[in-house]
Amino acid sequence: MEEEARFWERVRDSDVQCGLCAHRCVIKEGQRGICRVRVNREGRLYTEAYGAVASLAVDPIEKKPLYHFHPGSLAFSISTASCNFRCLHCQNYSLSACGLEDVPYRYMGVRSLLDKAEENRCDGIAYTYNEPTIWYEYTYDCSKKAHDEGLYNVYVTNGYITEEPLREIAPYMDAMNIDIKGNDSFYRKVCKARLEPVLDTCRLARSLGIHTELTYLVIPGYNDDDASVDGFCRFVAEELDNQTPVHFTRFFPYHRMTGVPSTPYQTLLKAYTIAKARKLEFAYIGNVMDREHNNTFCPQCNSLLIERSTFSVRLTGLDGKRCATCGRKIPIVL
Ligand code: SF4
Are residues 72 and 32 in the same domain? Predict the structure, then answer.
């Protein structure tokens, strides 16, 4: 459904500039922004994605991945189509590499979305699978209402949102998983974007008190070198907090990177080791069968705190938000 967009201004004649993400597209009359779902009609900017739900599922929160946020809970997970990035390796390209005209979708009002989430006994809403910023207006309205009804909200995002919209949604946004994809040259070559706005979002999300976890998809030959991985870990340690959970996930050869092999397990382990050398306390390995590196251990006494397997999550060693053995405070939202 089309609605007038937020965060834009008229720049000259009937051209408008969108300020929702760091691309800050200048859009001529009748044209769309890079995200394909925001259109200039007679000098005003509209979103075509309001309530246009292209994908919907009930997922464990661990799948986002969020490991320190309501472990074991269920997130009603939704997305629209398209994206504001053009990642050659996109792992969700069937939704993100096309416009709304290319995929089936249905309109869901805020009320019907929340009813569906509650019917499915979900604990919150996850805006995921594609970039949630591009249908910001809908995610904002849903988040606000979801909070009124005791549900949490989660963004799984590329972090390209700008400051003002993030500040506005922050009171309703409980957690974010933000991708950091590589160094700036990787962003420019592979995603047609830049790294710095993503880092700004990580800093701001943290300073706004949003629970933040980070994902680094490790791609052989592109961002798996020690310097790139260490650059990511150094940023987390020095500018966020060494207790920020980080997820090194396995790449599969999709979209325009079908010629690149899946990430070897040893490469993921090496990334994990680099994170540990930077003293990151909660590093995980994802998209592989490796229970040990998906469990949470106490950084002080090494007791097992949370045990994860494909189908279950057990909070074995926690006493509230503390290690039951040594009492160390653990950064977790329960
Ligand atoms: S949200 Fe879309 S239109 Fe707005 S700046 Fe980003 S890509 Fe451009």
Answer: no
Q: How far is the CA of 33 from the centre of ligand 1 (A)?
A: 5
Q: Which atom of ligand 1 is nearest to the CA of 133?
A: 1
Residues with a CB atom less than 6 Å from ligand 1: 18, 20-21, 23-25, 33-35, 38, 84, 134
Ligand 1 mean position to 238 CA, how many Å?
30
289-323: b (≥16 Cβ within 10 Å) or e: ebeebbbbbbbeeebbbbebeeeebebebbeeebb
pLDDT tier, 1 (very low <50, low <70, confident <90, very high otherwise): confident
271 part of a folded domain: yes
Please count the structural domains in the chain.
2
Three-state DSSP state, 279: coil
Atom of ligand 1 nearest to the CA of 37: 2
The reported pLDDT for the residue numbered 292 is 86
Residue 291 is predicted with a pLDDT of 81
With contact defined as beta carbons under 8 Å apart, do 271 and 241 qualify?
no
pLDDT tens string 11-20:
999 999 999 9
For 245, what's the count of Cα atoms within 13 Å in the CB-facing half-sphere?
29
pTM of the complete model: 0.97
List 8's β-bridge partners, or say none: 18
The protein residue whose alpha carbon is closest to atom 4 in ligand 1 is 18
Together in a domain, 188 and 120 = yes
Are 176 and 33 within one domain? Answer: no
Q: Does 19 lie in the same domain as 133?
A: no
